Amino acid sequence: MRASVLSDWLAQHLDRGNGQPLYRQLHRLLQQAILSRELPAGSKVPSSRLLAAELGIARNTVTQVYEQLVLEGYVSSATGRGTFVADSAPDEIIGTPDASAAPDAANLPDATRGAPDAALRQALFAPGSARLARSGTPLAPERALSRRGARLVAGAGVSKRQGGAFMPGVPDVTRFPARVWSRLQNKYWRRLRPDLLTYAPGGGQAWLRHVLADYLRTARSVQCAPEQIIITTGIHQSVDLAVRLLSDVGDVIWTEDPCYWGVRSVLQVSGLEVRPVAVDDEGINPGPDDLLQPPKLMLVTPSHQYPLGMVMSLQRRRMLLEYARQHQCWIIEDDYDSEFRYGSRPLASLQGLDSAGQVIYVGSFGKTLFPGLRIGYLVAPAALAERFATASAELYREGQLLQQAMLAEFIAEGHFTSHIRKMRALYGQRRGALLEAVAQRYGTTLPVLGGDAGLHLVLQLPPGADDRAAAAAALERNIVVRALSGYYAEAARAQPGLLLGYACVPDEEIVPAFATLSQALDERLGLG
Amino acid sequence: MRASVLSDWLAQHLDRGNGQPLYRQLHRLLQQAILSRELPAGSKVPSSRLLAAELGIARNTVTQVYEQLVLEGYVSSATGRGTFVADSAPDEIIGTPDASAAPDAANLPDATRGAPDAALRQALFAPGSARLARSGTPLAPERALSRRGARLVAGAGVSKRQGGAFMPGVPDVTRFPARVWSRLQNKYWRRLRPDLLTYAPGGGQAWLRHVLADYLRTARSVQCAPEQIIITTGIHQSVDLAVRLLSDVGDVIWTEDPCYWGVRSVLQVSGLEVRPVAVDDEGINPGPDDLLQPPKLMLVTPSHQYPLGMVMSLQRRRMLLEYARQHQCWIIEDDYDSEFRYGSRPLASLQGLDSAGQVIYVGSFGKTLFPGLRIGYLVAPAALAERFATASAELYREGQLLQQAMLAEFIAEGHFTSHIRKMRALYGQRRGALLEAVAQRYGTTLPVLGGDAGLHLVLQLPPGADDRAAAAAALERNIVVRALSGYYAEAARAQPGLLLGYACVPDEEIVPAFATLSQALDERLGLG
């Protein structure tokens, strides 16, 4: 097609009345001409000035279309020489016009190279099937997410804020020993071991698995050999792995009510039927109706119930283990922040009491080091450890071995425990400051839950108070708190309250930030 | 309980005839005594010498049990002073003996603190429910994986080897510009930005999304704004996200047959019904039966069919897009290694031809940089981009922002394209050497597929040849090859062949390694 022929063809097909911008129409038509080889590879396209004049449209429109085509690889422009059709089109290109711009399906050539896709052609163009869209048809209406996708997005609990007073669950990353970490990093990158840059073998880096097994045995009374440790990217992936290996679609899982929103989402998209079970001051407390239908799995936070903060009593642990043993349920123990206890020593893990190989223990370095690290772990029952390792490699194709080896050395050199010790003291101070601020302002009017461990506490609000409104009022003053009621699955159980994270709040900001928060509460809830 | 009373009680309960090792019995009994407060917190336990003498067992057994109890946090030992019961037990501990060691359920005390868990107690100990296990009962029989878990593990394709001649799909990580990377790393860790250490906002680090959108528009003709880019940990996570958001359990997905094993596993555990569709030399080629039941999703590798290596023809692309538009199917375009083409320029992406917002484009830095990096990306349809970002944060709780920012700078400084250029030349040489070795040894007897792009080629074997046996024979000689037939879902379609990866094989090893391989082939298949 010569330049003048092209202009004529374009003029003929541009339709000013169909509501589509000329820019888009011109772009489509030129794509079509190139793809169909009407404009063959290497041929020069008219200058933007000439084409604009011949079509009677703004030159700027043509320039923009050409720029877009360059970006898309349809044409390339050589300074001073003009714009040429790229030769990137492979041999098999034949004259099928771009479907969305095609004048009519009847125009499609019948002769295809050996027509191996005759079935596809027939399905597309058979009577009764929808005809190809005409030029200028608006884009297809937006398609919907799947049911599980829509539910996931609608119920998403994730916040756009990841720090500041009083964001719960976020540690103080400014105190992370960056210099030590950086030194280790340099060491590993200088003497580069290629095997640390490739895919992870099932389970993760061997040294880290070893060091971690020692740590968990000693610090958390977890019964485990290094082979049982599966390195993951965190609690989410650990739970995902356990759930996919141990349950099928439609199986029932008990979660604590309230519980951590993120894990609930992971369970739901895996096709589990989530049954929220009430908690009391000894932890999860299944009622008669729950017990009549034993679940396939339970997910519990025995060391520090999330978000309320109580410790599961030993008696409750035993009963849960025994019930699980009798009914062949799996228990996932989420031990997300048990390193931070102020005053009392951590209680041994539930896994450590289990003699039936029915507990899957999961934890993470997100709170103890920094969230962005994305290293967590799962302790699999010994009998299933190898299968967990294989499944993890198969499903997630993990890597990050260099970072894992570094972390192993960081732990082995004692930096991990010393960092935890420091942070425990620091968070303990902040917690003290916040507790005092609460007591000074509200006395015993607003009781505090879960103050003796973790990275946040729960400020209970009076019955009937609207905690979401309170959180919204706080956010208007740039204070992030989370409404306790949002953590409940069953509205009837929901208690009003606010989660106040203190770990990531600098000492000197705690009192003023709490003062701001209490203004918001006083105004919105008529407290004080 | 005084020490002598303890010894008597232990002597009474140790049962030499029940088949359980004394070590385990003693361990359980001591746990029970501590947990039930028969041995109260802070009390001293008898020395190992004394207890061993009183019980008439080896002192070593007692020492080992004490060490285990120290690890588990039940007791602590102070050098020179003896071993003491730890005070870590919380207040609510009452005299429930360890269930697995309990002589009988009837011995359980009835008085519980307020008995909030009466229902659980009743369920456990009601007539008709299984009785508690007696001391000495062997561990519960190993529990089974779920159906999807068992299927995942049984069908796992992941290899224990991740390098060496001729491992397919693994790039040469020794050539990665470690010095440049290390310099950037130091820069980022010196001027530490706390926001890079915390959780990722939905979608990933902003600069990387921006830089990547530019790259994909230019190099791959992908139509995208930075907001459409979702940073993931790789192809597996990208596919997982798309599938969970766009399909429900039981929905049908078309995959190419043969295809990459890892992605098939991801699809299956998400509850999809995977329907393998034949391919021909123009790509996926659905037959009449396939077309009658439009799938919810299709997963294709248009730039470079995996593992066979052909490019999907433009005609096939258009028809697939049009069929998807008519039947409201989603298309996942897996563009895993299109940067490596030798000779021909890469064909533009399928996503770039789509005007209906129905293509989800996924890619990864695993092949272009190094697999262990675990950074990949997904390009979401514009209308769904924000929901994809939210879902990604909700489901995976990602981090690694510092690494992502570094990578953005690495790309922006031009290191990425220059590395790709170097590696393309290097892999081109290795590919040439391997092709020549094949031609010299086998002439045209064993044709080669997919040799003009990617990191591997396929050596076809004569019809009926047992390619798995050939791969096993090669492995005995320490040569890793993968049997082509293993990539097929339908045995009737499976062609025998071997995938030979050349990218991670040093130049000088290619010829000798191929000679070793051909010996194995000659012996096993009677070739030559």
User: What overall form of chain A do the CA principal axes indicate?
Assistant: globular
Number of helices of chain A: 17
Give the beta-strand count of chain A.
15
Q: What radius of gyration of chain A results from the CA coordinates?
A: 31 Å
Oligomer: homodimer
Integer average pLDDT of chain A = 85
Strand content of chain A: 5-15%
Topology:
Two copies of one chain form a homodimer.
Chain A: H1 3-13, H2 22-35, E1 44-45, H3 48-55, H4 59-71, E2 75-78, E3 82-85, H5 118-125, H6 147-154, H7 178-190, H8 206-220, E4 229-232, H9 235-246, E5 252-257, H10 261-269, E6 273-280, E7 283-284, H11 288-292, E8 297-300, H12 314-327, E9 330-334, E10 359-364, E11 376-379, H13 385-396, H14 401-412, H15 415-442, E12 448-449, E13 456-460, H16 467-476, E14 482-483, E15 497-501, H17 507-525
Parallel strand pairs in A: 5-6, 5-8, 8-9, 9-10
Antiparallel strand pairs in A: 1-3, 2-3, 4-11, 6-7, 10-11, 12-13, 13-15, 14-15
Kindly describe this structure:
With 528 residues, the first copy, chain A, is an alpha/beta fold. Helices cover 40% and strands 12% of the residues of chain A. Chain A has helices spanning 3-13, 22-35, 48-55, 59-71, 118-125, 147-154, 178-190, 206-220, 235-246, 261-269, 288-292, 314-327, 385-396, 401-412, 415-442, 467-476, 507-525, and strands at residues 44-45, 75-78, 82-85, 229-232, 252-257, 273-280, 283-284, 297-300, 330-334, 359-364, 376-379, 448-449, 456-460, 482-483, 497-501. In chain A, strands 4-11-10-9-8-5-6-7 form an eight-stranded mixed β-sheet, sandwiched between helices. A four-stranded antiparallel β-sheet of chain A has the order 12-13-15-14, covered by helices on one side. A three-stranded antiparallel β-sheet of chain A has the order 1-3-2. In chain A, a hairpin with a 2-residue loop joins strand 6 (273-280) and strand 7. Chain A is globular. Chains A and B meet through helix 5, helix 6, helix 7, helix 9 and helix 10 of A and helix 5, helix 6, helix 7, helix 9 and helix 10 of B.
